[in-house]
Amino acid sequence: MTQLKNDLLIRALLRQPVDRTPVWMMRQAGRYLPEYRAVREQAGSFMNLCTNPELACEVTLQPLRRFRFDAAILFSDILTIPDAMGLGLYFTEGEGPKFKHPIQSVSDIKKLPIPDPNTELRYVTDAVKLIRQHLNGSVPLIGFSGSPWTLATYMIEGGSSKNFQKAKSLMYEQPNYLHSLLDKLAQSVAAYLNAQIEAGAQAIMLFDTWGGMLTTEDYCEFSLQYAKQVKALLANTGKDGNTVPAILFTKGGGQWLEAMLDAGYDALGLDWQTDIHKARLQVGSRVALQGNMDPVALYAQPEFIVEKVKAILEKFGKGSGHVFNLGHGILPDINPRHVEAMVNAVHQYSPVYHR
Amino acid sequence: MTQLKNDLLIRALLRQPVDRTPVWMMRQAGRYLPEYRAVREQAGSFMNLCTNPELACEVTLQPLRRFRFDAAILFSDILTIPDAMGLGLYFTEGEGPKFKHPIQSVSDIKKLPIPDPNTELRYVTDAVKLIRQHLNGSVPLIGFSGSPWTLATYMIEGGSSKNFQKAKSLMYEQPNYLHSLLDKLAQSVAAYLNAQIEAGAQAIMLFDTWGGMLTTEDYCEFSLQYAKQVKALLANTGKDGNTVPAILFTKGGGQWLEAMLDAGYDALGLDWQTDIHKARLQVGSRVALQGNMDPVALYAQPEFIVEKVKAILEKFGKGSGHVFNLGHGILPDINPRHVEAMVNAVHQYSPVYHR
Question: What is the CA radius of gyration of chain B?
Fold first, then answer.
C-alpha cells in the first residue's frame, strides 16, 4: 500500500482540510506540449498511442515533469469502450473519432457485448499499473470514462455530431431501445472504471461531454440516470485501501447541479459558464467542485491569467472542496508557459483560503 | 393606423390575456422550404436576397402561406450592421458569413462609423415597409438585430468562430477597447431597430447567439450590459401608436435569467436546454417567455412532435405570457409537414391553458 506524498486532490474531492487548492487540467497530456507531439509522431497513429501502455504512460507523465500539477490523469480516449464492443474506432486527421460499424438498428444494440475490461481493454489497465509504478506515490492517478449517454451519441451517429439527429430520433421514437443501450453502457462503464480502480486509479471522472445538448427532462432520463447507475456500481475503495472519489462533469450542465447531486458523486465538474460562487451556494457541503477557468483565457498574457486564477479562487472562497481546473480541455495551441502561470498562481494565491 | 387582425403575439409578449398560445419559429423563412430555395436560387447569392426588398418580402411571407403562424419575422441577416460599417460581409457556400475587412487593431475600432439606418440599411427598412403592406394587418411583423456582443465576435474573428480566441483576447487584455466597440454597436443596433420600428416593425428581437460562450461575469459586463443599453434607447411605440414589445434571446443563457430581467425586455427567449416551468417560476410575472422545443425534435414523426408540444404547453401552464417557438432556429433539412404538426398542435392544445 503506497502512501501518497501529495494527497491534496483526494482530500479536496472528499472536502477534507487541505493547506492549498489542488490543481490539474483536463487534457493536460496533450498536443500543446511539444514532447507529446513527438511521442504521438513516434506512435504513428492516435490509436497506437492509446493502446500502447508504455507510450500512454510516457505522455501521462509528461505534464507532471513541467508543471506542479497535483494529479496525473490516464492518457486514453473516451471511446475505448465502444471500440472494445466491436464498433471499430478510428481517427482521421482533423475530423475527430469515427466508427467503422456504428449502431444502425435495434438488433445492433441487442448484439452488443459488455466488454471484459481485463481482456479487450487490457491495454488500459496495463497503462494504469505502469503509470502508478512510475508515479511512485508522488500524486494520485485519475482514471476516467465517457458517460453512457456521451458514448451512445458517438455509437449511434458514427462519430462526432453537431445536432445528434440520429441519437435524438431514437430517443424520441424508440426510447426503450435507447434505454437498453444506455443500460448496457452503464454496466460496461462501471466494469471498466472498476478495472481501472483495481489496477490502481485513485480517483475517477465521468466525462458527460454531450449531456448539455439535451432538454432538462431528457438529461435526467437519458444521461444523469445512467451516470447514477455507474456510480452505484463503482468500488468505493482502491487497491491501496483508500477511498476513491468520483467526479461527474456534464459540459453545459450548470443549470442541473441540483439534480446532479442525487447521482452520488463526490464532486461535480463545472464548465466556465457556470459561476462557481453561486454553484457552491447551491451545492453547499454536499459535493466538492472542480473547475472552472475558461480554456480560452490561457491565450491571454500571463499577468491576465494570474488575475483570472485569483478571481476564481476568491469566488470559491474559504475552505476545502475546490479542485482548480479549466472549464473544458486545454486547447491544442496554448503556450505551455501560460499553463505554468496558471499552475503557479494556484500554488501562490490559494493557501490564504485554507488558513 | 392598421388594426391587427391577429394580435396574439403582441398580447402574449405583454402578458395580456389571450385565448390561445401564439406560435412562430426562429428561421421560419428559410431553407427547409422549397419555395425559399427557389427564390434564393433566383437571387443568385444570399446577400442579393437580403438586400433586395421585394425578394426579402417574398421569403418573409412564404411560411405564412403554409402554416398558421402568429407572426412574420423580417428576412434578413444578423450581420447587416457590420456590413454597413464597411466590413464587407460575404458568404461562401457551406462556410458561413465572413468579412473582407475584419477588425484587426484598435484604430480599426476608432474609425468605425455608426451607420445611418435610413441610408446604408435602407434596403432593410424598405423591406419592412413592403412586408407590412403585404401583411395588411393579418399578423404582426417582428424586426430584429444581432446583439452588440454577437456582432462584435464576428467583426473581430472575421467570421464564425469556435472558441472566440481573438474576441476574448481583446476582452482579457484590452477591455476598454472592446467596451468602446460594444458601445458603438449598441448605438448602431438601437438606431437600426428604431428605424425598423419606424418603418413598421411591431415587435423586436435581439439575437445574442454567442453570449452563452462567456463566463457569468463576462456575460454581464460584455453582453447583457449592451443589450440593456440597446433596450434603453428603443422606441416603445410603433408607427401605429401601439406598444412594441422587445424580446432578448441569449442562446446558452438559461443560468442567467435572473440577471437578464434587469435589462428591461418584455420577454426572454429560452433555448431548449432550459426548463420552461422552472424559468417561469423564476421570472414570475416580470417578463413573458418564448420557446422552447428542441429543433431536433422536428425530425421525429408527427405523433411524437405533438407530444413534445403538449409537454411544453403543460410545463408553462395556465395563463398568458408564453410564445411558442423552437429553442433555436429550424434546421435546414426538416420536413415542412413536421412543422405543420407542431403549429397545429399549438392551435389545438393551447386554448385550455387560457380559459
Answer: 19
Q: What is the pLDDT of residue A92?
A: 85
How far, in Å, are A324, B6, B7, B16, B355 from residue B19 at the CA level?
52, 11, 11, 10, 7
Question: Residue A315 is placed in which grid cell?
Answer: 469566488
Residue A114, pLDDT > 70, answer yes
For residue B232, the surrounding DSSP H or E stretch is: helix B225-233
Residue B270 in contact with partner chain A when CB distance is under 8 A: no
Nearest to B194 by CA among B101, B117, B86: B117
Catalytic annotation present for A31: yes
The three grid cell numbers given for residue A164, joined into one nine-digit string: 445528434
- Cα separations (Å) of B101 from B105, B158, B187, B188? 11, 7, 21, 18
- State whether residue A255 sits within 8 Å of chain B by CB: yes
Task: Please give the distance of CA A193 from its chain centroid, rounded to a whole number.
Answer: 12
CA distance linking residue A165 with residue B294, whole number of Å: 11
Residues of A numbered 191-250 whose beta carbons fall under 8 angstroms of chain B's beta carbons: which are they? Answer: 212-219
Is the pTM above the cut of 0.80? yes
Residue B154 appears among annotated catalytic residues? yes
- What residues form DSSP beta bridges with B291? B324
Tell me, what amino acid is at A186?
A: A
Backbone φ/ψ region at B73: left (φ over 0), alpha (ψ -120 to 50), beta: beta
Is B226 part of the annotated catalytic residue set?
no
Strands A141-146 and A203-208: parallel
What residue in B sits closest to A253 (Cα-Cα)? B273
CA dihedral B331, B334, B336, B340 (to 10 degrees): -80
| Active-site residue flag, B77 | yes
B122 as an active site residue: the answer is no
Instruction: Give the tens place of pLDDT for each residue, A321-342.
Output: 999 999 999 999 999 999 999 9
Nearest to residue B271, comparing CAs of A295, A164, A255, A277? A255
Sort out which chain A residues have CB atoms less than 8 A from B341's CB and list them: none
Whether A324 and A69 have beta carbons less than 8 Å apart is answered as no
> What is the full DSSP assignment across A203-236?
EEEEEETTGGGS-HHHIIIIIIHHHHHHHHHS-S
> Strand (E) positions, chain B?
72-73, 89-92, 96-99, 141-146, 203-208, 246-250, 267-269, 288-293, 322-326
Closest CA of chain B from A163, distance in Å: 7
Q: Does residue B251 belong to the interface with chain A, where contact is any CB pair within 8 Å?
A: no
Cβ proximity of B22 and B9 under 8 Å: yes
A309 in B contact zone (CB under 8 Å):
no
Does the structure's ipTM exceed the value 0.90? yes
Strand partners, B247: B205, B267
pLDDT of residue B1: 46
Helices A225-233 & A175-199 angle (0-180, nearest 10): 30
